[in-house]
Every structure is written in structure tokens, then in C-alpha cells.
Amino acid sequence: MTESTTKGRPLDDDLTRRVLAAVRSQLEDSGFVNLNIEKIASSVGCGKTTIYRRWPTKPELVAAAIVDGLKLGDMPDTGDVVEDLVEHAWQNLENFRRSKEEAKNNGLLLAMFNMDVIPIISDSFMKVRHAMGREILSRAVERGQMSDEVDQDAIIDALAGFTLFRVTLKPDLKAHDDEELRGTYRSLVRSLIGRAPEPR
Length: 200
Description:
Elements: H1 13-30, H2 37-44, H3 48-54, H4 58-68, H5 81-102, H6 107-112, H7 118-142, H8 152-169, H9 178-193
Helix pairs in contact: 1-2, 1-4, 4-7, 5-7, 5-8, 5-9, 7-8
């Protein structure tokens, strides 16, 4: 059902996109604490009530703005669990890269880890990504590519944590190119699933 704004205009997809883009921009400029809903409403030409009707709290609005800039990605199925997990991890990396391109002052990243925001992002995005990783691993067990005794949640979390650490906390530690970085992911995945390194 289409919602109406206080100015009599429908809250269509275009307006939603503009609201969420304005939130991301203001988060970069002013941070989560100083996010001003009235300024956002004014900048996109709707009323404050319209925004609160769709997103009743500031954490919900901020979480929606962050998730709007992310992509869930497709479910890889190359036939090889190593390549599938590398591609799954690469989708996380691409999301971080897009966020960094938009970021000016790390406002988005800081907002993402706000204690009131992160549970909402977890429910609406991270749990879905985690389930995709679990499906990749469960499929690998069925194919006999890895043991069913491996801690699947730990593997998925380790890959996500590696990506976050390399992109945000250790940005100077870069591979020479993407193919080298993919090679690093492959080595990590093989270690996590207990597969011997490929002979050189």
C-alpha cells in the first residue's frame, strides 16, 4: 500500500531512495548522534511525519539507509566449496568497497556499529548473508568436500571478520591486485575447512 506524505505526495520508491541517500550523506557529515530528521525531510521534500511513519526510530532509519547501500549477492555454485566461499566472501568485500567509496568521514561505518543499529542490520541483512554461507557449507558436506564436524558458523564469521579487518583496520595491508587477494582468500578458506594447500 502506498503511504501519503504530509505534503500530499505518495511515499514512492523514488522518495524512499532519496530519504535513505540523504540519511547516508548526513551520517557522513554529522554522525549518528547529530542526525537531524527534520533536515532530511526538508532536503527531500516531505514531512517529518512521513519518515517517522515508515521508520519509527532513528536506529531503524539509519539501519535501513545502510542496508539500502548493500547487496545480498547471488548464491555461488561452482561445484567447489573453496571457490564458492571465496566468492561469498568477495561479495562482502564489494559491499565494504562501495561503502568506503561513499564514505568521507567513516560516519557510515561508525553508525553501522552503533549498539542500537547493529541488531537491526543483523536481522535484516547479516543473518541472510550468514544463511547463504551455511547453505554453501551444507552443500559441500553433502558433496563430500568437507567434514560435517567442522564448525560452519566459525568459518563464516572468520571470513567476514577477515574482510572487515583488512578493509577497515588494516587498509595499508593490500594485495597487489584482486587476483592476489583472491589467492589470500583461497588459502584462508582451505585452512578453515581443513583442506590441504594446492601443490605449487
